[in-house]
Design goal:
Layout (H helix, E strand, L loop, with lengths): L1 H7 L5 E5 L6 H17 L3 E6 L10 H9 L8 E2 L5 H4 L3 E6 L16 E6 L12 E4 L5 H12 L6 H14 L12 H13 L6 H16 L7 H7 L1 E6 L4 E7 L6 H5 L4 H12 L3 E6 L2 E5 L4 H12 L6 E3 L8 E5 L6 H15 L1
Parallel strand pairs: 1-2, 1-4, 2-3, 4-5, 5-6, 8-9
Antiparallel strand pairs: 7-8, 9-10, 10-12, 11-12
Helix pairs in contact: 2-5, 2-6, 3-8, 5-6, 5-7, 6-7, 12-13
Amino acid sequence: LPHVLKKLKDVPKLGVVLGNEAGDLDSVTSALTYAYHLQEHRDYECIPVLNFPRLDLPLKTEVRFCLKKLHLNPEHLVFVDDLNWVELGDALELTLVDHNVINKPELKFLEPNVVAVFDHHVQERQDIDDLDFQLDFVGSASTLIAERIFQENPEMQEETVLKLIRWTIITDTSNLSPAKKKATKLDIEILEQIENILAESAASMWNRKVIYEEIIKAKSDTSSFCANQLLRKDLKVVYFKAPEITVSLSSLPGAMSCSKFMDRLDFRKDLDDFQRKGNYALIIALGAGDLMIYPKETDLCFKVREMLLSKNPDIKIKVDQSKFSDVEYLRRSNVAYTRKKIMPLVKEAIEECK
């Protein structure tokens, strides 16, 4: 890997496909598969970059499971902290997948290098006129990547790429569950197109169930994790300026609720450690059927709580008794209201508080 990274400094043009900070299966798959496509169909070097520290790779259990199943070694991948971004300079052409703006303050200077975006979150980017900009509220960003790949290469047959995208769409849409309301018409169309190519039509429904359960099991395999690692496993960070405020939004793995999370013996110590190291003004965690906000007695917490309670009844959320006096605890019954939908509300609440 050091040899490869050293070689990149000398290329006249480098395409980088950058996933989002959470580094979940969708983000990683989107980065890997689109970078592969670009490398095959462009006349310059293209690489995927995982937008989280190499140190956090062991936390991405479902990513490691899928890559291992395809005989790919995640240790050989490039992570955001492997690159000297300043050295890449004008040679860099950046594609953002599974997000549409650069959030990390230390990488904001790369915004002029962004040439393309593929995302399924609320649009935050303002100027899109000169970009290849694809944003659609599909269940999986990988769906948009597959759509573009098929548009540019209708004869696409690469089994590893297709399997990885298929597994990701199945996972992101909760196996097309009507109750979860995540799957769109395009997700289903792309999934069926991939299955036709892979000749999995006869037993596709059963195979979907099997792979979905395997990936969810891998994602939930966190028995050795401390509370700090559980908060970092699927983490998105929101940065605000004037004044500078940093807010973390963690999705707890599997069927873990915040209530169960707060029962852990290491919860109190690790929560404080997580806040101190990240310098977070507010910590929000989403569990199975609930949500927690820390610290409680702050204007930021009040604004976020009021935004979730009063302005958006569709979330079906209510305040409940907390196990800690400084942790706000809320129950939520609308499973369709995931972090992707809650995050814009959190941002709006904090902007009002500034």
